[in-house]
Specification:
The complex is a heterotrimer of chains A (about 290), B (about 280) and C (about 290). With about 290 residues, chain A is mainly α. Chain A is built from 11 helices and 2 strands. In chain A, about 80% of the residues lie in helices and about 0% in strands. Chain A is globular. In chain B, helix 3 packs parallel to helix 6, helix 4 packs across helix 6 and helix 6 packs parallel to helix 7. Classes of the chains: A mainly alpha (about 290), B alpha/beta (about 280), C mainly alpha (about 290).
């Protein structure tokens, strides 16, 4: 055995170096979010100086060539698309999880779960492409023009469905067996057990799933850009083309300069604010529920 | 008093033998050559037993001898377990439990079950009792409230919870939760209560309270209670049955009235077990 | 006591049964429709030539050779940057911070937020920071670095899980034997945490390849073979986007490219599943 003294020193210094090195990487990783916010704000500043926050909601329209920067039509587009898709995807997702756990034979449940995982892996651009060449013409037959809020909602639904389905699946798996046995011993039929006992037991996981899918719906860009028509207007029917905040950025960033570019960064900040607001609301509500 | 034809194991005697003629308990549940296999492994085999109505029958024996498995056959909870095979025959008051056409919902209304670990639902106290009632068809609010109060009084919980019926059931103590589970089972007016070591997960004080409660339910319900606690069995049981592992599966060794089982057991194994020398 | 109890509500149970099976059927049908459509239209065009030849006529004909190269390069840059930072952060969070540590909590918090940031915002950031401020312009390097930021949270979360899954007894035995933390880490913990790491890696790669919005303003649109990392390069996902939206008559090749991309991703997800079932014994729910 070498002398313990030199051992302690050499070990100590390696460990210390390693610790500092690792701390450095963690600092970098942790700093990225702050960097993003900082740069977004930096690039958006000209818009605040030249345009002012109020005009983003009060200008006559979004027409950068004429100096109009009203974001509201696109906010509505984002909100409607998000709401529609979450309303459809949530029951589909929860029912799918219920299917896997309580209704399907074991082999079928495994296959179905695998299918959903596959769906989760398909990139948004492929969804958008399929929506463009298959879904949009179908909608056009029902009611022109085709690219519309409806197409956007449908594609978004397909995209966010795996998120809620997989999350619900995991939550249902965590429901203690003893509740199910107790319900069976009381002669409670299957759906009654699911509705009255399983759902309350799994509610925090289901809630998290809804939050996650909503965040995904707000942030989705490519698929909705490709199918929803990208006309800047507040939609008055499902068949109206819309433009979401995300699609707006993607479309105009390529050629935007000066104030226009800054305005796009402002909409980027609005998106960040929406996502963070969502996360905060989730935390606040779930904290309340722990005692409820 | 001639011994009737033995319907249990070779060395035990018919429970009727020990009773005075004017208070003859009827046989209510007949279990005939019941066996359970988890896949290839037998949990217990060849159990034949007669349960008297309105009496408390204690099932005793070391762990792993099939007592709990036996219990879950009676209300067909075995249907929930994949790979489970039940053989034999169970009749409750002429109803064939194991027949494929038996209405499970009705069966489980007639048979209530209390588990070892208290398992109130993650709902309010009120909903815990109200929900099964509603699901079984009782819609009248007044009757539901009435039933809830009656059963909570029966288990001695009413005074403790009447002011907080809408608080979460999981916030109750272990003993209170178990009593709530009993109330929940009683609300459906079962005829039989199956209890799987209902006191073993509770502290001694709560255990005593629950035990007293079980004793008070005698004659209104037919109770089968699995217990490790021989002293408890001595205190509350009218009949007792010993399960033991023999030849790789659980078997019924002896059954009889409590007095005969504990004081004059026929089988040496029973004698060893009740005196604490085995198991 | 209660005489009015009667049979269970069969109609409701049947309705639930129909709805649940109906939901499953609807999802399955949609999936088959979608995938079937892509395979049907794309299979005819995918060939070795397609995979290696350059695009012609704005992509209407020809293949995706240079695009696959660009995609690999972007991926390479992404992993080269994100792996060291990601593993380092994960190790630091798992091994060197306690649950009470302020720094640990802040870092985790910011990573959680990072995981929720929409990809288009990453695109904006990448454009502002990498392309403009750092002067990298539209290049594979910018794209790769932007993707690295996106992939970090996934990688870190999964790797940290991998480290947490290693039993405490490993660390205790090592300490009792007088081993340095570095040695313990490198020789004991890292090998044991490899499954978590691999899963995170694979998930991250999957996310990176599927990414479009973050790359549009960072790695550019140019579809010829890139000469260096500072050249602009088009990723496969962007190629599909361009063909379907901007190039009339590009649908055929768009289908073929989609098929290639989907197969690539299915293969990656398949590897992730295999590693999960083989190595880790818990479910990783994707963000």
């Amino acid at each position: 055995m070498t002398s313990s003294r030199s051992n302690i020193l050499s070990r100590w210094s390696t460990d210390k170096v390693l610790c500092q090195l690792l701390r450095g990487t963690a600092v970098i990783a942790g700093a990225i979010v702050m960097l993003i916010v900082v740069f977004l704000i930096m690039e958006a500043l000209p818009a605040f100086y030249h345009i002012g926050l109020l005009r983003f909601f009060t200008d006559p329209s979004w027409h950068p060539a004429e100096g109009f920067y009203n974001l509201t039509p696109m906010l509505w587009g984002t909100l409607f698309a998000m709401t529609g898709s979450v309303l459809i995807a949530t029951p589909l997702g929860i029912f799918s999880a219920v299917f896997c756990h309580y209704y399907a034979p074991r082999g079928l449940a495994r296959l179905y779960r695998r299918l959903i995982e596959l769906l989760a892996g398909i990139p948004s651009v492929v969804y958008g492409f399929w929506g463009l060449v298959v879904l949009v013409p179908l909608i056009a037959e029902m009611e022109p023009p085709g690219p519309s809020l409806l197409a956007g909602i449908l594609i978004l639904t397909i995209m966010i469905f795996p998120t809620i389905a997989l999350m619900a699946d995991a939550s249902l798996a965590n429901v203690p067996q003893q509740y199910l046995r107790g319900a069976a011993a009381l002669g409670l039929p299957r759906w009654a057990t699911i509705r009255g006992i399983v759902f309350p037991a799994a509610k925090s996981g289901l809630f998290t799933g809804v939050i996650l899918e909503t965040g995904r719906a707000i942030g989705e860009t490519m698929a909705i850009l490709m199918v929803s028509g990208n006309v800047v207007q507040t939609p008055s029917s499902l068949f109206d083309p819309i433009r979401t905040l995300t699609a707006n950025i993607a479309l105009e960033m390529a050629y935007a300069l000066g104030d226009h570019r800054a305005a796009l960064f402002v909409s980027g900040l609005v998106l960040m604010a929406m996502i963070m607001g969502l996360a905060l609301a989730a935390e606040w509500i779930s904290r309340g529920r722990i005692y409820g | 008093m001639t011994p009737a034809e033995p319907i249990t194991g070779p060395r035990s005697r018919h429970p009727l033998e020990e009773r005075s003629p004017c208070r003859k308990p009827q046989s209510f549940m007949e279990i005939d050559r019941l066996g359970l296999h988890y896949g290839e492994k037998p949990a217990f085999q060849d159990v034949t037993l007669s349960i008297s109505k309105g009496r408390i029958t204690a099932l005793v024996g070391p762990s792993g001898c099939g007592k709990t498995s036996f219990l879950i056959c009676l209300n067909r909870l075995t249907d929930l377990i994949a790979g489970c095979r039940v053989s034999g025959r169970i009749t409750i008051d002429a109803l064939d439990v194991l027949a494929p056409g038996t209405d499970l919902i009705q069966l489980r209304r007639r048979i209530g079950m209390i588990f070892q670990k208290p398992n109130p639902f993650p709902l309010t106290i009120r909903r815990n009792i109200e929900f099964p009632l509603r699901e079984h068809g009782l819609r009248d609010r007044g009757q539901i409230i009435q039933t809830m109060e009656t059963t909570l009084r029966d288990v001695g919980l009413w005074d403790e919870v009447k002011d907080r019926l809408d608080s979460p059931a999981l916030a109750l103590s272990g003993g209170q939760q178990q009593r709530l589970c009993i109330a929940r089972a009683l609300a459906l007016s079962p005829e039989v209560l199956l209890m799987d070591e209902p006191c073993s997960a509770l502290d001694p004080l709560s255990s005593g309270v629950v035990e007293d409660l079980i004793a008070s339910l005698r004659s209104r319900y037919t109770i089968l209670i699995v217990t490790h606690n021989l002293a408890q069995a001595r205190r509350i049981a009218d009949y007792a049955a010993l399960f033991w592992i023999q030849n790789g599966a659980g078997r019924l060794i002896e059954t009889g009235t409590a007095r005969q089982f504990f004081e004059e057991p026929h089988d040496p194994l029973t004698a060893a077990y009740v005196s604490g020398m085995r198991g | 006591m209660v005489e009015t109890l009667n049979r269970s509500q069969t109609p409701r149970e049947w309705l639930a049964f129909a709805l649940v099976w109906g939901a499953a059927a609807l999802v399955t049908a949609t999936f088959c429709w979608l995938l079937g459509d892509i395979v049907w239209h794309g299979l005819g065009h995918v060939s070795w030539t397609f995979l290696t030849a350059p695009p012609e006529n704005a992509g209407r004909r020809g293949g995706i050779g240079p695009i696959l190269v660009s995609t690999s390069l972007i991926l390479g840059v992404c992993l080269t940057v994100s792996l060291p930072i990601g593993i380092g952060t994960a190790v630091f969070l798992a091994e060197f911070t306690s649950d009470q540590s302020q720094f640990g909590r802040m870092t985790r918090r910011s990573l959680d937020i990072l995981a929720g940031v929409p990809s288009i915002v990453f695109g904006l950031f990448g454009n502002a920071f990498f392309c403009k401020t750092l002067g990298l312009g539209f290049s594979i390097l910018s794209g790769g670095l932007t993707l690295a930021c996106m992939v970090l949270p996934i990688l870190i979360r999964s790797t940290e899980e991998g480290f947490r899954a290693v039993p405490a007894s490993y660390r205790l035995s090592a300490a009792a034997l007088g081993l340095s933390r570095t040695t313990t880490l490198v020789h004991l913990l890292l090998p044991a945490a490899v499954p978590g790491l691999l899963v995170g890696l694979v998930l991250g790669v999957g996310r990176a390849i599927a990414e479009t919005a973050a790359l549009i303003f960072t790695s550019g649109y140019v579809d010829r073979m890139p000469e260096s990392l500072l050249d602009s390069g088009r990723a496969l996902s962007i190629h599909i986007f361009d063909l379907s939206m901007n190039v009339s008559g590009g649908d055929a090749n768009a289908y073929a490219s989609s098929l290639v991309l989907v197969i690539l991703l299915l293969a990656i997800n398949g590897i992730a599943s295999a590693v999960t079932t083989y190595g880790l014994h818990r479910k990783i729910v994707r963000v």
